[in-house]
Amino acid sequence: MSDQETDQEIIDRLTALRSQDLPVRGGRTMAYVYDSGLDGLDDLAERAQAAFAGVNGLDMTAFPSVVALENDIVGRAAGLLGGDDGTAGTFTSGGTESCLLAVLTARNHARRTRGVTAPELVLPATAHAAFRKAAALFGLTVVTVPVDPVTFRARPEAMAAALTDRTALVVASAPSYAHGAIDPVTEIAAAAAGRGVLCHVDACIGGWYLAHLPRTLPRPPAFDLAVPGVTSLSVDLHKYAYTPKGASVLLFRDAELRRHGWFADASWPGYPVVNATLQGTKSAGPLAAAWAVLRRIGPAGYAELSGRVHEAVQALVGGIGRIDGLRVLGDPQASLVAVASDEPGLDPFVVADEMRLRGWFLQPQPAFGGSPPNLHLTVTAAVASPGRIALLLEELGGAVRRARELGPATVDEGLAGLAAQLDPDTLGPEEIALALQLAGISDDGALPERMAPVLAVLQALPPRLTERLLPEVIGRLYRARTGPYG
């Protein structure tokens, strides 16, 4: 008896697994995925990706098509985002890799040109976690600067005051992920330039959208490479360029700066190695798919999609303002909206559970600093389709009413106090089990249908303890079983 499965059996298994996931089309998943709503686009991207799936981007001399595709994409991004013929760029696997490379490049630049041996990374408190990951990987000290408690934008004077002779890089967001606020890039970049410090703009989520807003709409604050003092910028294509996952661009003001982030090695008996990214071997499939989608939609198409998203955001913000118990945090300047509760008995995490039970995913964001617990909504072109915002607001109003009746998720104060006394650096199996039991995580790692109680516990614990526990939660999900395929 053969242990091989037929093609149809394999596809059936994959389909069954996929049925448990959030939908990636239709505009009901308001985080993680970006849907243009355009007919035929997915088919084109799949065909382009399949045609280049076996092409290895490791060696561009063996596969010159990689150079041609990347040069075209980087040129389009540079032209859109304030670059010129001297601008250099790299195609990466996503926003995290782009941010990692920006920090790595800045660290090496500071070391080689200024002799900085204990580099610092200056971040507004709202900067994406990818920058803290970069600091952890590459040995930089993070200097976190509080943001304005009302607008959630970085404060230029505070950012400037945080710069020292050890600062390798300062970061601004356009916009920040959590609240959709665009930092004052012009002022921050000027302060950085005055100290001889590099300045990176994280436009991963908003750059393509903001740059394509129709000229008839209000202009966003200046944020791109045309701003004096901005030395690098990241923009994801798999977000508002609506390409398949695995596509981002990191732009540098010039090739000389980009060179500080490359790795080259000829000190081994194999082939000479030169990498512009963290990856070595990498499929050119995402590169080809991104190239195809950019050409299919084109500048006019992106302007139309961005205009639709802008109108949808305005309608969404206005509609949320009419739902008793909810309020929008800050003043969203892009396509991201953060929604909090303005009454003690209404738990936004319970609202999220109610929405998910009806087929919507609104991303919970625990309280941190001056930001209260809230729900993150990413508005894409699919969310902006006719009738979708009205339906979303209707569902959200119903979820608020049900959440108010259910009441907020509660945490046992005694157990929470006990857990808060745990030392994250010395946790043993028993202490970990206690903390996870408090959070409602079973021994087999299965997550409960309602996540509000889990989030309430994680939010109540000290951040370092939460950071210690999160890998334990995920580690219980990823437990491979040996034996035959099943």
UniProtKB/TrEMBL annotation:
Its cofactor is pyridoxal 5'-phosphate. Keywords: Lyase, Pyridoxal phosphate. The keyword Protein biosynthesis does not apply. SUPFAM superfamilies: PLP-dependent transferases. Pfam families: Pyridoxal_deC. PANTHER family: PTHR42735, SPHINGOSINE-1-PHOSPHATE LYASE 1. Belongs to the group II decarboxylase family. Sphingosine-1-phosphate lyase subfamily. This is Pyridoxal phosphate-dependent decarboxylase family protein. It comes from Streptomyces fildesensis.
